[in-house]
Amino acid sequence: MFFHYIDLSWRSIKRTPVISFLMVFAIAIGIGLTMTSLSVYHMMSMDPIPHKSGAIFYPQLNIMDDGNEWHSSDNLPYQLTYQDAVNLYNADVPVPKSPSFRSGFSVHLSSPDVKPTMEPARLVNREFFSIFDRPFIYGAPWSLNSQDTHEYVVVISEKINNRLFAGEDSVGQHIYLDNNSYRIVGVTANWDHHVKYYDVNNGAFNSSEQLYIPFGIGALEEITTWGNLNGWKHEGMKNYQDLMHSEHVWLQFWVQLNTEEEKQQFANFLMTYMEDQREKGRFNREALEYKLRNVTEWLEYNSVVSEDNRILVGLSFMFLLVCVSNILGLLLAKFLKRAPEVGVRRALGASKRHIFAQHIVEVSVIGLAGGLLGIVIAQIGLWGIRVTNSYYDALATMDVSMLLAAPIIALVASFLAGLYPAWLVCRTQPAIYLKSQ
């Protein structure tokens, strides 16, 4: 019976091509706009590392003296000072942890055959790669000995490896970062993340860095940050050493705490550390304060998904509702025009249920066609976003869930639009139209 209804639907659509096209187009436009905004919102709000987002934590310390405030919702700085990041890393707490900050270098091979390029870099400790599950194509992170001895080693991205070494195993080769030679110890696969959750302070949707070098080299080479640097009091900084010992915040810090017990132990350590620093003349506060937020809490705290994005999704669904209202009017005109035919079918024994089902199937066919066309329109919209603003390259895309959601939303929308017209036409009284015949 279902396939018979499909056949009847197709015949009805062919009999009224203009009205049918208008309904398909109306659904497609509504779905296209809705899925464009919904896809961006979906990518923004997705858990970027779902298998361990609850085990990776970002500590915040209230470093200001009493009477000073920060521009955050809870008066806590978003980043750490250099001295705090180093102290937390060197503390005798046996859990994976790493400070980091963003910088950049001119990358070249000291050869006229390869043009140098400016590439973003991140200074990290070796635990960074395990905390964030960075996959390696060749090699591995540098050794603990290389880190402790400040050996000039580097992990490069697949993109740089393809450009400089034609994609071959480059472990052991040397590249120049500015004027220094670094030995390649590993090549990471391209990290296609939709949210740069490990450093939202410097652009939550920026691309990941292409180079990773040991954190300790930063002090040796006096490498400056490419990210945000803020302070809460005036400090006369004449050189890099002054910056390292200042109260300016410019580093990120992540720690992996797999159990509630580890989290509690690290929290206790943070409070002990702050009390110790207060005795040394820092953190002059009556009430010491810190926070430990996991990945999802950190993204929410930083309002990665803004209220504007939610409003935009709401507006797109309201536009879809307008499209559904227009379809309702078209369906009423189309179905009521068919009332004499329905009256004859009722007289021949067709039940109201069969008449209702036939029209709902027809509406669903129109909705499915509109949903598929809506996917095409949404892809065009997302392409337009990527072309006009590369910042949203990783967000302006549709994953499998969104591709499946589009026809489902279209079917639901068309079903709701067709409920009243189908119910109205199935109540047709056969006697009226038999007398007219």
Q: Overall mean pLDDT score? A: 87
DSSP helical segment count: 15
Cα radius of gyration in angstroms: 31 Å
Shape label = elongated
* Total count of strands: 11
Report the sheet with the most strands, covering strand number, pairing sense and barrel closure: 6 strands, mixed, barrel
Helix content: 40-55%
Low-pLDDT segments, ≥5 res: none
- Please report the distance between the alpha carbons of the first and last residues: 28 Å
H/E series, N to C?
HHEEHEEHEHEHEEEHHEHEHHHHHH
In terms of structural class, how would the helical and strand content be classed?
alpha+beta
| Proportion of strand residues | 15-25%
How are the strands of the largest sheet arranged?
Answer: 3-4-9-6-8-7
